[in-house]
Amino acid sequence: MFAFHGVDFMEIDALFSDEEKLVRQMVREFVDKEVIPHIEEWNREGKFPKHLVPLMAELGFYGANMEGYGCAGMSNVQYGLIMQELERGDSGLRSFVSVQGALVMYPIKEFGSEEQKEKWLPALQQGKAIGCFGLTEPDFGSNPGGMRTRGKKDGGDYILNGEKAWITSGTIADVAVVWARTDEGVRGFLVEKGTPGYSAKDIKGKWSLRASVTSTLSLQDVRVPACNMLPKATGLKTALSCLSQARYGIGWGGIGAAMACYNESLEYAKIRKQFDDKPIASHQLIQAKFADMITEITKAQLLALQVGRLKDQGRADFAHISMLKRNNVKMALDVARAARDILGANGVADEYPIFRHMCNLESVFTYEGTHNIHTLILGERVTGVPAYK
User: What is the pTM of this model?
Assistant: First the structure.
């Protein structure tokens, strides 16, 4: 393992405030100390490091860019840097923090009642409760509007029936934000662990995000009181607005994974000798790969920073975030594949982090809106013509 000192070809650090760099350094040290020495073992065993949940709470990771209820009240750029450094450690760890904040705490804060906020937000922020987000279904990923989960009014309650799939943290969650179609349209419900008829099951056999909990949720005549409905969450657009929050963090996270792969392959190329006892870093084809990698990482850094600044000004649009997620995850996957190639056979061994990042990024490429879906979002924005309808 080589010490990580950051990747900054274009002096982008000069664009960050001292407070932003301090947050980044704090998370960087956490990842170097608590994650990197152990992550390959967790990945090999398919184990989520649940013991880190309270420590990450103490550091203010959950809902970091939210105000009140114990949240850190950081800027969106600071939050992005947290996501960047966490994914430098592992995509699964960043996914857990993303879901806890952007997909559970955010909808409760924005669309919940004051009673719901008081009950859940402090507990979620402190890591005393874990949440999950139930939107995706076995047959409806890219088309959430086709959801089959139903909520039927029954006196002062709702009866929920349906299935959700590919849910991060499902089996360890104390509360699930479940989206269901009702007579009043798509609504969000808070379903608590232990509610009769509600169950979660881990998805086994993953070759990606192995250090993360991924689950299915089953709702069989689950009775929840009407007060568990998020009162301001009306319509599918409400659920999609939560996804925009998560996608923003993913755009930063991709940079972290790319940095890890770039740095590892660069250090390797400097000491790996081949042909006339020269380091492979001296070869033209290898240098071409590094030129491409550092250029794409730099472009991704600038894109993330600009979207972050726009978000802090209240000017970031969902299409801006789609561009960020689409570009930066594709960039990270390309960098991981190039880095794997540089390491040759060693690139598939978990002595090095590259293949793990590459496998993780295959999932990140797909979730929170596939690469192709974000392509169509951007296509509609620039042409005014929706191609997916």
Answer: 0.96
